[in-house]
Amino acid sequence: MGQRSSHIQQPADCRHSDKFIIIGNPTEEVEFDTAQSHLVGFAIDYQSHEKMQAKSLGRPVETAAKLVSKTFVEIGAVPEGNTTILVASENSTDCTFEGMKRCFVYAAKCVEAEGMFVFYFCGHGVEVGDKRALAPSDFDRSECTCITASVLNDWLTEANCKAKHVLFALDCCYAGGVGDALTTDIPLHRSLFVMSACTANETSYTIGTLEVSMFSYFLADAMRKQSCDPGKLPLYNILTECRTCCEALSSLLVKYEAPGKVSSCQIDPEITSSGGDQKDNDDETDIDGVPDVGRFQYITKLYDTKAPRPPLHAKTKQWLKSIVKSITILRDRKLLKDKVLNTAVCFITTSIASYQLAFQRDTVSQPNTFITAFLNIASFFDNHCRGVDITIDHLKYGRAAHSYVLQNNGVDNASIEALRNCEGM
Question: Is the pTM of this model over 0.70?
C-alpha cells in the first residue's frame, strides 16, 4: 500500500475525500471551554457473546483507552472529573449496546454550549452487510447489536448535545468507514471531527510489544507534542503526526502470503471533519554484506560453525533499503526506544521471516538462518540509527517473532527453538 498525500483541501460546503475526508471549511485548530467539556471512552477488551468470545482483545485495549483519556487530561483538554473510561471486563453492563448508549447519551448531555464532547472507542470494528460498525461487548454478529454511524447520530440527537465541537476517536478495524458514514449522516452545521485508526478497508493493530494499540499510542504521543494551550486542540497537526508515525511503524511489517508472495501491512489513519536519507558505509565487509561485523560479536558467537550460513535473499535486502525512510522518521522523533524499538525489531524480524518463507523456504529452518537475519537487522540499525543499541534482549524478541512466523506456516522450527539454550539467550 503506497503513501497517501496528507494535503488538506478546503472545499466550500461540499464533501471531499482524499484520505483526509473533509466537509465544509476545516479549521487547523479548534477552541473550546475545557471546563464545559466531557470525554467518555469504551475499552471493549472482552466479548461476552459465545460467537465472539474467542476474539476478545484483552488488556492492550484497556491500556489504550486509559492512555488516551489520561493524555486529554494532561494537555488540559478535558478535566479529570469529566472523563469516564468504561472497560468491558470490569463493567459488564455499561459496555453492552444498551449500556454504551446510556453512558454515551449521559456524557453528551453534560457538555455545555462552549465545550467539546469526546467519544473514544477501542475494540473490534466489524463489517455487517455493506456497513462498517463498532462492536459492543454483547455483539453477536447481527446488525441490531452493532453500532453504526447512524446509531451514533441517533444517540447524539437523543442527547440533544449542545457541544461546540464533537470529536470521535475510533481505534478499531474499518474505522475510516465509520468516520466516512458519520460525516454523511450528521448535518453539516455540526462541528464534528472523526479521527480513525485506519481506512474503511483496513485493520488496525493491537501490539503486544507496545502493550497498547498502535493508533492510540501515537495519538497520545502526538497530542502531548502538538498541544500547547488548554482549550485549544490542533487536530490536523495531531492527526498528521499520528498518521506519519503509524505509517512509518506499520511499513516495517510484511506478511507471508504464498511462495513468491508477501504483502504489506501498512495502515493509514484518517481524519474526518465537518466544520532521512540512507548513508553510504565504506567499512570493510565481513559476513553477508554486514560491515564491521566485530561489533556484533554477541550475535555472531551464536552461529553454528558446522552449518551453512544462508545469505539474505536479494528481495529481502531490497526491502530493507526501502524502509530506511520509515526508520528515519521514527529516529528523528526520538521514538526508537523502549516499546517502540522492541516493536520495530519484531516487525522487521517478522518481515524477514516472511521473505525467507516466500523466497528461501528450503533454508528457512536451518540453524543459522535467523542469526544471519538478525545480524543484518543489527547492522541496519547501526547504519541508520547510530546511538540506538540493538541488544541481546532485542535478539530474544526477534527470535520469538521469527519462530512464530515459521511455526504459523508449518515449518519445522526446532533449530530456531534450540537458540533458547544458547549462551546469552
Answer: yes
DSSP state of 54: G
DSSP H or E stretch at residue 15? strand 15-18
**Residue with the three cell numbers 553477508:** 288
Say if residue 195 is exposed, middle or buried (CB neighbours under 10 Å; 0-12, 13-18, 19+). Answer: buried
Cell of 261: 508472495
Which residues on neighbouring strands pair with residue 269, listed in sequence order?
A: none
Write out pLDDT tens, residues 5-14.
222 222 333 3
Residue 313 amino acid letter: H
Give dist(CA 16, CA 22) in Å, integer: 5
User: How confident is the model over 258-306, as pLDDT tens digits?
Assistant: 999 998 876 555 555 444 333 434 333 345 555 555 678 888 888 888 8
Three cell numbers written together for 79:
478535566
Q: Work out whether strand 116-122 and strand 38-43 pair parallel, antiparallel, or are unpaired.
A: parallel
Going from the C-alpha of 171 to that of each of 61, 68, 109, 216, 278, the distances in angstroms are 9, 11, 23, 7, 33
Degrees to nearest 5, angle at CA 61 with 225 and 73: 40
Instruction: Extract the runs of DSSP E, i.e. beta strands, from 129-253.
Output: 131-134, 165-171, 192-196, 206-207, 212-213, 232-233
